Amino acid sequence: MRKKFFLRFITWFFCFLFLFNFLILAQEKIATDSKNKKTEKEVEIFKEKIASKVAELRQENKQMISGRIIEIKKGEIEIKDNNEKKKIISVDDLLTKYYSIKNNQKKEINFSDLKKDDYILVSGIINDRGINADVIFVEEKYIIDFGKLVEINRREYLLKVVTLTNETISLDIETFTKQWLLNIKSLELERTGFSKIKEGDMIHFVIKDKKNENNRFSAQKILIIPQEYFLN
């Protein structure tokens, strides 16, 4: 009888010991899993903070430069800015985006569409040589100037203007050219035609910074101020 009781006691003891160890291991596993999940979450939050900070710093360092293309190579573009300084634009086949801006319309283009003498606006991170380009916009550059009409060719619809810096500029009046005239009595602007323009008149003009096929500038807009305005 005592022997049977002893055997039962030993069996219960080992069962209890097994269950006790199992519960301890289960609790340790739950605690470990919970700790791992907490650690993973903290790591993800830390990664997000780093990514956010990198993006913030990148945004702070992002700048824009512009100029005319003088050379195109694989992986880079060389330009001259408005101060005639050379800058190197580094481009990436996968990351850099290209757009053409024409008539207020934006169109995505490719690196192969860029040409020498294109005027570009570049957004990216400044480096020692120039800029690492994120986005490149090909734009039409315009010049706004003022001068005196010294010659009118009515057969060719051509105006020759001497600017205040004594530069002579030849302007083609195109079908799309917007022409305005200052009414010297009311001082209001009126639509006008080529026939009303006279030598000696003063002219404000807007042109693209690129000559046309006639090696002249196509006038986008002109404003004529009659010479009589200055005599009153």
Question: What's this, in brief?
Answer:
Helix content is 26%, strand content 44%. The chain is built from 1 helix and 13 strands, in the order αβββββββββββββ. The strands form 2 sheets. Strands 1-2-3-7-6 form a 5-stranded mixed barrel.
Give your account of this protein's structure.
The chain is built from 1 helix and 13 strands; from the N terminus they run αβββββββββββββ. Strands 1-2-3-7-6 form a 5-stranded mixed beta barrel. It has a 5-stranded mixed barrel with strand order 8-9-10-13-12. With 232 residues, the protein is α+β, with helices and mostly antiparallel strands. It is elongated, with a radius of gyration of 38 Å. The relative contact order is 0.10.
